[in-house]
Specification:
TIM Barrel; 4 domains; alpha/beta; globular; binds flavin mononucleotide
Length: 492
């Protein structure tokens, strides 16, 4: 394809000329290619699964010059630069100037603290505040930050394995104000930035966009924060201290403080944190932790109103979230947990929080953001939900690619979303309003094939839905959902 001679492939491997490639290629999945119709050129040429839309005579890749001139060299996705793996972006080559400075001070403070506690006689000249010396605290003043206006905003929570860029585009269109890339686990053993690259990708419509980091050591978190600061365009960096491994921080406040202060020092954008009420149900610590987070440098905190022990069981305690909002002031506090209707959102805002974060409801009905903003219930038919999946498909192919790999990636994310989307119950079938996350679907509906299909909880039906947009899967196709979805809805 590059006009160079092909390397010999493995036996029975890739065909080495277009004729034989096309002869073995499965039929196209549709008549129009989203990349060609949107940008005027499809970069996947013959490998595109919709190639018929732009193949001319002799398999020439047809270009719509007028459209292509508009888009050439441009992208709707930002922060793509880190994908190129250029030397300066590799961790081993990157000069962590500010992080090294900070970590050096931490080491010094920890030595001083040890000396202060082990020496029973004599005095120590270094007064420490536990994580840093007073002197260093003054020296390591965080850089001036752009103030973000969080007030009254709707925040689409970071959603691992589900909150991909195409999904966030759907939510943005329905009115989400703040979006966040998929959580990234910092692990310094890596030489480059594999994995983090896609967490960073930001669609041009995401005007208030953050990235969520998870890690337990200041070294990991502060280094990655500095790397992000130098290479990506994000509006805030969130510390995950509530989901999966991130919760550990709530039990290790010294490290938590070191991480917040360090990230605040290296970042030129605000640092935020996501926490739970505490680890154990009976031992809430959020109300004491939140003022500390503010003093350490956090610009906003999201509080999920359940303890780690409760996981997603029991209802989020919004009264407690309201108490925490009071002690957080003037720092904004976002409340999170069980918001499923505009009535829930109104009640939540009345507790005094600055905004609300939404997770499961966005996966079940992404139009919740419109419902909240327009203060109404929006009954969306199965046909309309299917149209939304078509848009997701287009967004997915545009982002991941229209070749075989892109098609399968789009399918994979769609299949991770459908176990949530199928839980939507049309408003007309509800016995009461407002709807609740725990409402049960009345079961199979007579004569409504599409509604039955869209509400099916069977993997084979989710695959069938994906096949409506992305072609059939092989007989031995196997899909394992990334999440145990039932666990997110289990009643105590
Ligand atoms: C599929 C899924 C993935 C999630 N991934 C993350 C994540 O990566 N980071 C995070 O802080 N929370 C994550 N959460 C937790 C949610 O952000 C949220 O705190 C929790 O679901 C409660 O909010 P809700 O009642 O609106 O669902 C996830 C939740 C779900 C359902």
């Amino acid at each position: 394809m590059k006009g160079e001679e092909c390397m010999p492939g493995p036996e029975g491997g890739f065909p080495r000329d277009i004729e034989s490639y096309m002869a073995t290629k499965p039929p196209d999945l549709g008549d129009s290619c989203i990349l060609f119709s949107r940008f005027g050129k499809c970069r996947y040429w013959v490998t595109c699964r919709f190639a018929g839309a732009h193949l001319g005579e002799g398999y020439q890749n047809v270009v719509n010059e007028e459209l292509w001139q508009e888009w050439k060299g441009k992208s709707t996705v930002r922060n793509m630069l880190v994908n190129k793996g250029s030397g300066s972006l590799m961790l081993k080559n990157f000069f962590f100037r500010k992080s090294s400075d900070y970590l050096f001070c931490l080491k010094k403070a920890s030595k001083a603290m040890k000396a202060a506690t082990t020496k029973t006689t004599g005095t120590t000249t270094l007064k420490t505040v536990g994580v840093l010396t007073d002197e260093d605290l003054i020296r390591l003043r965080p850089c001036e930050k752009r103030k973000l206006d969080f007030q009254g905003k709707l925040y689409l929570s970071s959603l691992s394995n589900c909150g991909s860029l195409p999904f966030r585009r759907i939510c943005k269109r329905f009115g989400a104000d703040i979006t966040c890339g998929e959580m990234f686990t910092c692990a310094l053993s890596q030489n480059e930035l594999p994995g983090i690259t896609s967490s960073l990708h930001r669609h041009e419509t995401e005007d208030l966009f953050g990235i969520q980091l998870q890690g337990t050591t200041p070294k990991q978190m502060v280094n990655y924060a500095e790397l992000l600061n130098e290479t990506a365009e994000v509006d805030f960096v969130d510390i995950n201290a509530e989901y999966r491994g991130g919760c550990v921080l709530m039990n290790h406040l010294v490290e938590f403080e070191q991480i917040v202060r360090g990230m605040d020092y290296v970042l030129s954008v605000p640092v935020t944190a996501k926490i739970r009420t505490g680890i154990a149900k009976k031992c809430r610590i959020a109300h004491t932790l939140i003022p500390k987070l503010r003093d350490w440098g956090a610009s906003m905190v999201t509080l999920h109103g359940r303890s780690r022990e409760e996981m997603h069981q029991n209802l989020a305690d919004w009264e407690y979230i309201g108490e925490c909002a009071k002690v957080a002031a003037p720092m904004p506090l976002f409340g999170n947990g069980d918001i499923f209707s505009f009535e829930d959102a109104t009640r939540a805002m009345e507790t005094g929080v600055s905004g609300i974060a939404i997770a499961r409801a966005a996966l079940i009905k992404p139009w919740i953001f419109t419902e909240i903003k327009e203060r109404r219930h929006w009954d969306i038919s199965a046909r309309e939900r299917l149209d939304m999946l078509k848009d997701f498909t287009d967004f997915g192919l545009e982002y991941w690619g229209s070749d075989k790999i892109g098609v399968e990636k789009t399918r994979h994310y769609m299949l991770n979303w459908l176990p949530f989307l199928c839980r939507y119950i049309p408003v007309g079938l509800l016995e009461h309003l407002p709807p609740k996350m725990s409402d049960q679907h009345p079961g199979v509906l007579y004569g409504d094939y599409l509604e039955n299909l869209m509400s099916s909880e069977m993997i084979k039906d989710w695959v069938k839905i994906s096949e409506m947009f992305l072609g059939t899967v092989p007989d031995d196709y196997h899909f394992e959902p990334a999440h145990d979805v039932d666990a997110y809805f289990r009643q105590p």
